[in-house]
């Protein structure tokens, strides 16, 4: 029930991107793991971390993120599961006091926030975000400053959604509060613009929040809900609009109408989806300062274009003043490039272009090092082919 | 001549809340990078809750939109197996959260603001609470 029900064993840096003073530091704590279950805890944390760093856009931000695993031993295994919510009635003596049925909601799993922050501060003073892995296979979790997840099969996905809120300031993109068909006071969004970057009440092409990501051929609004008393029954974008198209789809921020989301679906709408392009851009915007000045990435070349001086590439806020433009399969929505005819290094730059051309022709992977110039794009400083 | 204390790179403030009542629990300097500020202007019609580090004249130096704390709903899984989430209204919600802000020499206070989308009424955001930062961000 309290910190007398266990102890903090120690901390292991399981993902090392560099000095904590200059990286984004994620701290994972465990609750409801007995001493004999610490190996299981390490496995659970690895599963969560692999899921995080294997997903878009975190897979391209690995060099910005440290992950620390804090080993916490509890007297008992699991979490409280009160019968008032239909639980088993289990009472577990655990260090962070994990319990289901918070606020009378069966699947709302919480821990003591203050204790979690105190442990994180003592172990990793430079922490930016805390997540707690609870040793229970019952489905549940919660968001807030301390994101909590259990070991049910999709809990890692829920934890990523909650990180979207608490670490990156993203809004829910689903179009209801309590559920479709369960409410009649969420038909139309109230006046005013949501403060979050991934929902809007304004679908005007000239002023839309994410207008730079909308193709000219994509209609705006991209969808409208034909009946504002209900959730839009569509199961996909309209005919002719690609599934990945960024636009303005009506139904977001807990309202059936009057609010728009950027893509048909996103992890902020359904937890089993990837983050949409707008959410991914926001995450990059937050984490970019934590990347080293020169970043390394690898992938296969999906786009290679050489054009005239001054043509450039990308939207005004992320403009690349380059002659050679490259896109990689591992970095969707991003572009890299370099000037071909510049100063005394023209021979080196032509060599970089030759390497890229060969890799494109052979569909073989390359490693590129780039200097960040915007949210998504960067200038290449080195290219190497990979075996 | 005595040298002034170097300013911290960042300050972490930890708060407790119940409903929309916020209480400062601790404030300490941290040698860490701070995520970039959210936009510092053009949000007069915005809905939501955010914090601002302000100078003595009330000018915002750093702004962060809060998503989670002070909300009157909590998010839970919608059903036993699907990928959907839903929210449920709760009253008197309690918890804790942290705000990491840059250690600006000009920082005077941290304000919690609630926007009600009121440009047309020219009312702007409402200040929910204010906490002194005592120069350099720490108190």
What labels would you give this structure?
heterodimer, A: alpha/beta, 5-stranded mixed beta barrel, 23% strand, B: 139 residues, mainly beta, 4-stranded antiparallel sheet, 50% strand, M64 family metallopeptidase (chain A), MetalloPept_cat_dom_sf (chain A), Peptidase_M64_IgA (chain A), metallopeptidase activity (chain A)
Structure description:
Chain A: It comes from Umezawaea endophytica. Chain A: This is M64 family metallopeptidase. Chain A: One of its GO terms (molecular function) is metallopeptidase activity. Chain A: InterPro entries: MetalloPept_cat_dom_sf, Peptidase_M64_IgA. With 387 residues, chain A is an alpha/beta fold. Chain A has 5 helices and 14 strands. Chain A has a 6-stranded mixed β-sheet, with helices on both faces. In chain A, helix 1 links the parallel strand 2 and strand 3. The longest helix of chain A has 17 residues. With 139 residues, chain B is mostly beta strands. Chain B has a domain of 85 residues. Helix content of chain B is 0%, strand content 50%. Chain B has no helices and 9 strands. In chain B, strand 3 and strand 4 form a beta hairpin. Chain B starts with 9 loop residues before the first strand and ends in a 7-residue tail after the last strand. The mean pLDDT of chain B is 83. The interface between A and B is large, with 60 and 53 residues.
Can you give me a brief rundown of this structure?
The complex is a heterodimer of chains A (387) and B (139). With 387 residues, chain A is an alpha/beta fold. Chain A contains five helices and 14 strands.
**Which strand order do you get reading across the main beta sheet of chain B?**
4-3-8-9
Task: Give the tally of β-strands of chain A.
Answer: 14
Biggest interface in this structure? A-B, 60 and 53 residues
Q: In angstroms, what separates the terminal alpha carbons of chain A?
A: 54 Å
Rounded to an integer, what's the Rg of chain A over CA atoms?
23 Å
Q: How many DSSP H or I helices of chain A?
A: 5
- How much of the sequence lies in strands of chain A comes to 15-25%
* Main sheet attributes: strand count, strand direction, barrel closure of chain B: 4 strands, antiparallel
- How many E-type strands of chain B? 9
Question: Structural class given helices, strands, pairing of chain B?
Answer: mainly beta
Spans of chain B with pLDDT under 50 lasting ≥5 residues? none
* Mass-distribution shape of chain A: flat
Average pLDDT taken over every residue of chain B: 83
Q: Could you give the order of the helices and strands of chain B?
A: EEEEEEEEE
Strand content of chain B: over 45%
Give the helix tally of chain B.
0
Counting helices, strands and paired strands, the structural category of chain A is alpha/beta
Question: What's the average pLDDT of chain A?
Answer: 93
Terminal Cα span of chain B: 24 Å
Pfam families (chain A): Peptidase_M64
GO molecular function (chain A): metallopeptidase activity
Organism (chain A): Umezawaea endophytica
Protein name (chain A): M64 family metallopeptidase
């Amino acid at each position: 029930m309290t910190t007398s029900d266990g102890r903090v064993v120690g901390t292991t840096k399981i993902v090392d991107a560099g000095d904590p003073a200059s990286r984004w530091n994620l701290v994972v704590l465990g609750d409801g793991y007995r001493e004999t279950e610490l190996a299981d805890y390490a496995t659970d944390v690895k599963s969560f971390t692999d899921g995080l760093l294997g997903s878009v856009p975190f897979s391209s931000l690995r060099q910005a993120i440290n992950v620390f695993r804090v080993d916490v031993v509890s007297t008992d295994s699991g979490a409280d599961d009160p019968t008032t919510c239909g639980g088993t009635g289990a009472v577990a003596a655990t260090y962070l006091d994990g319990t289901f049925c918070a606020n009378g909601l069966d699947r709302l799993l919480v821990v003591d926030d203050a204790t979690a922050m105190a442990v994180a501060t003592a172990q990793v003073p430079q922490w930016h975000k805390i997540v707690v892995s609870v040793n229970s296979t019952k489905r549940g979790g919660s968001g807030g400053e301390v994101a909590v997840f259990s070991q049910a099969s999709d809990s890692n996905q829920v934890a990523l959604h909650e990180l979207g809120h608490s670490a990156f300031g993203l809004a829910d993109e689903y179009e209801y509060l309590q559920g479709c068909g369960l409410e009649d006071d969420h038909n139309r969004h109230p006046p005013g613009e949501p403060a979050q970057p991934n929902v809007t009440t304004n679908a005007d092409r000239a002023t839309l929040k994410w207008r730079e990501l909308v193709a000219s051929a994509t209609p705006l609004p991209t969808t409208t809900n034909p009946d504002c008393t209900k959730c839009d029954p569509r199961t996909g974008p309209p005919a002719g609009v690609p599934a990945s198209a960024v636009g303005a789809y009506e139904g977001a921020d807990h309202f059936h109408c009057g609010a728009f989301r950027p893509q048909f679906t996103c992890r902020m709408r359904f937890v089993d989806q990837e983050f949409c392009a707008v959410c991914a851009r926001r995450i990059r915007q937050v984490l970019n300062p934590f990347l080293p000045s020169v970043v390394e990435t690898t992938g296969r070349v999906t786009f290679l274009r050489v054009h005239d001086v001054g043509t450039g590439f990308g939207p005004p806020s992320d403009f690349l003043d380059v002659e050679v433009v490259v896109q990689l399969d591992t970095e969707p929505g991003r572009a890299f490039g370099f000037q071909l005819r510049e100063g005394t290094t023209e021979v080196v730059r032509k060599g970089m272009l030759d390497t890229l051309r060969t890799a494109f022709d052979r569909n073989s992977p390359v490693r590129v090092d780039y200097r960040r110039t915007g949210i998504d794009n960067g200038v290449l400083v080195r290219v190497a082919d990979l075996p | 001549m005595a040298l002034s204390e170097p300013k911290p790179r960042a300050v972490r403030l930890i708060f407790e809340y119940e409903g929309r009542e916020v209480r400062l629990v601790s404030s300490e300097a941290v040698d860490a990078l701070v995520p970039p500020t959210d936009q510092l202007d053009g949000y007069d019609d915005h809905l939501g809750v955010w914090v601002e580090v302000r100078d003595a004249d009330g000018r915002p130096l750093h702004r962060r939109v809060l998503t989670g704390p002070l909300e009157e709903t909590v998010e839970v899984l919608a059903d036993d197996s699907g990928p959907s989430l839903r929210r449920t209204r709760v009253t008197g919600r309690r918890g804790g959260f942290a705000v990491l802000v840059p250690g600006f020499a000009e920082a005077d206070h941290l304000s919690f603001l609630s926007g009600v989308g009121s440009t047309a009424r020219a009312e702007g955001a409402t200040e929910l609470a204010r906490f002194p930062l005592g120069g350099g961000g720490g108190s």
